[in-house]
Amino acid sequence: MAEQVGEAARLGFDELYRRDFRALAALAYGLSGSRAAAEELAQEAFLAAHRRWDEISRYDDPGAWLRRVVVNQSVSGVRRRIAERRALARLGSQRVLPSVLPDEDEEVWAAVRALPQRQAQVVALFYVDDRSVGDIARILECAEGTVKAHLHAARQALVRKLGNELKEDDQ
Amino acid sequence: MNAPVDLHTRLRSAGKSLHRAVEPIPVDEPPSVPSGGRLPRRTLLAAAAVVLVVAAVVGAAVALRADREDRVSNDPDAVPFLIFDSPPKGLPISGGVTLPLEVEGEPGTNLSLTLYDVDGKDLAVMTSEDRATDDPAEPEDPEHPVTVRGKQGAFEDTGILGRSVSWTEAEGVEVAVYSRTLTQEQLVTTASAATGEPTALEPGPLAAAGATPRKVGAVGGLTTAGMALPNRAVGHVVGYQGPEGADVAAVATITATPDEVAVLRWFAGATTMRKVRGHDGSIGSQTSVNQVSVGDGDTTEAQETTSWTVTWEESPGIYALVMMTNVTEEELLALVDDIRPATRAERSQIAAATLTDDEHSGTASEESEVSESALVEAPEGARPIFSGEFDAGGTWLLYLDHDQLCADLNLGATSGGSCGAIPDAPHATAIHAEVVTFVYGVAPEGTIYTAPDGMVAPTLVDGKLSPLFFGVPIEPGRPVPSEIKFYGGAGDVIARMPVRT
């Protein structure tokens, strides 16, 4: 059987890192609430990819695998705290890094993080990573209908929480 | 500027903010991946200190297997299991652990702390010995570099333990000197004049003709169970924690030597001696300062959290330590007056409300290694019931999220989960992720164990025992059962329940 050559194999690990690292960090930031933890979580995902590079490099969409790892780990409270502690330790400080988001955006992501985990992941992938419902379904390994249901429920909850109106035609 | 009215616009705008926030992260060089694929070790000592100081109160405890001849007892049942008579400020119990917990294998890092008196001022030497390193520490660029013993070190003045100077003394050995009273120059002086083996440095005098620091106490190994404790202590810790972890409290009763207690008192800032419950004790507070964003997010302001700690010798060789945040000295002492031993039923309830010890354990050094077992945690606001790891890797978790019974599987790159109303009658549900399955639900009253083998226990809901929940992890290669058998105390099958998927 011919060996499948995936996108990652064409890009190489370094190029994939340069292309996707910040996007993964942004995803992790929204879901974890900590910029310091986000950087560590993104790095962990790439280190995990590096450990399995022979396998990952054959995937058609290694970015989906990386995103799956990041969104799963970012919603883990323990993982988030460990990542943040490691980041703080690396800075040689016990200070808590301040948020760098404007208050109104911090409010949005705090509301997203208060959603059930799957809904929060779907919202982050849709609005931060600009992924389609189909993409998100592949990343989270679930049906598109499930993604739509999570997205709908999340939007309804966020409307109640944030007080913004919802235009359903913007999909 | 007013927020966009439309939700989609607002979410997309908030998403762009995240991208702007991570733009400064350099991506020119991919991370160097050490052999074995582990994250590079960076300043183990700093990591350990941070972990000790900011430790969560929820039973994240580890004590190492060790026996000491000078202990009053190695039997936790011989140590009182003390709790607040009623939850302080309504804080619910978040968990409890019995010390020591057994940890398989050799721990990677030992963290020791020795306390000195030097010219009437405090001085502590913390040593982190990495016994299992195969990844050298990475050099860093400290914000306040200093030269110590011919090596580059770092000065910090923001820590809860006071000012510090830290450096790498030898491969795998990081040392820091702390003081709440000495200056940066004095710390560098005493560190530079230190003598002895890298793992047992004795600090030098503050001046050429000055007195040698006098040893006050030492703890050969530190762990954290809501507060810094000797990792060989025997006893109990009960944690209390409010929403978001804003308010926490802990009650610990442990065996310890006066040497060790001196260090613990200094660590907690509880250095004012006084009578507590009629026993010799001490009390004190420490304040941590966090920078929080205000206004447009570009500016920050300091936010202080003060925690009070009181310690006393409950009986010869057995010490109690009580810590609580956002409380006054008088309030804490009043709470301590009402501390009492937990009843057997209360101990059972606390155990049921706690993640199993093995699954929740993690030493400071293991934190930096990110033990997979530490990844089992319920969402914020949820109450964990059981959790564990599959032999083949990955974790399972059963928890209560408000009025719903939920189960999660996490295999790293794959996860699965399900939530539903708490059944009012016995039932069994299965969820799957890749090749693993988890069966869970409500067991019939009187159930002691299940087949296939799993876990059965109630938990606390609003202070009352819940129905009997059960969870059965099914490893890859094992058949997914069509039914669960529930066994009673006499070993008889009291019910069979079909598994719904």
Features:
heterodimer; A: 171 residues; mainly alpha; globular; disordered N terminus; B: 501 residues; seven-stranded antiparallel β-sheet; 8 helices
Task: Furnish the topology, listing elements before pairings.
The complex is a heterodimer of chains A (about 170) and B (about 500).
Chain A: H1 7-11, H2 13-32, H3 35-51, H4 53-56, H5 62-74, H6 77-90, H7 103-113, H8 117-127, H9 133-140, H10 144-162
Helix pairs in contact in A: 2-3, 2-5, 3-5, 3-6, 5-9, 7-10, 8-10, 9-10
Chain B: H1 7-22, H2 44-54, E1 82-83, E2 93-99, E3 109-118, E4 121-130, E5 145-148, E6 151-159, E7 162-170, E8 173-179, H3 184-192, E9 214-219, E10 222-224, E11 228-230, E12 235-241, E13 248-255, H4 258-268, E14 272-276, E15 279-294, E16 299-315, E17 318-325, H5 329-337, E18 340-341, H6 344-352, H7 357-360, H8 364-369, E19 383-389, E20 395-401, E21 404-410, E22 415-421, E23 427-433, E24 436-442, E25 449-451, E26 455-457, E27 460-461, E28 464-465, E29 469-474, E30 483-487, E31 493-500
Parallel strand pairs in B: 23-31
Antiparallel strand pairs in B: 1-18, 2-12, 3-4, 3-9, 4-8, 5-6, 6-7, 7-8, 10-11, 12-13, 13-17, 14-15, 15-16, 16-17, 19-20, 20-21, 21-22, 23-24, 24-29, 25-30, 26-29, 27-28, 30-31
How would you describe what is shown here?
The complex is a heterodimer of chains A (171) and B (501). With 171 residues, chain A is mostly helical. Chain A has helices at 7-11, 13-32, 35-51, 53-56, 62-74, 77-90, 103-113, 117-127, 133-140, 144-162. In chain A, helix 7 (103-113) packs across helix 10 (144-162) and helix 8 crosses helix 10. Chain A is globular and about 45 Å long. Chain A starts with 6 loop residues before the first helix and ends in a 9-residue tail after the last helix. Chain B is mainly beta and 501 residues long. In chain B, 15% of the residues lie in helices and 41% in strands. Chain B has helices at 7-22, 44-54, 184-192, 258-268, 329-337, 344-352, 357-360, 364-369, and strands at 82-83, 93-99, 109-118, 121-130, 145-148, 151-159, 162-170, 173-179, 214-219, 222-224, 228-230, 235-241, 248-255, 272-276, 279-294, 299-315, 318-325, 340-341, 383-389, 395-401, 404-410, 415-421, 427-433, 436-442, 449-451, 455-457, 460-461, 464-465, 469-474, 483-487, 493-500. In chain B, a hairpin with a 2-residue loop joins strand 3 and strand 4. Chain B is globular and about 80 Å long. The chains are: A mainly alpha (171), B mainly beta (501). Chains A and B meet through helix 2, helix 3, helix 5, helix 6 and helix 7 of A and helix 1, helix 2, strand 6, strand 15 and strand 22 of B.
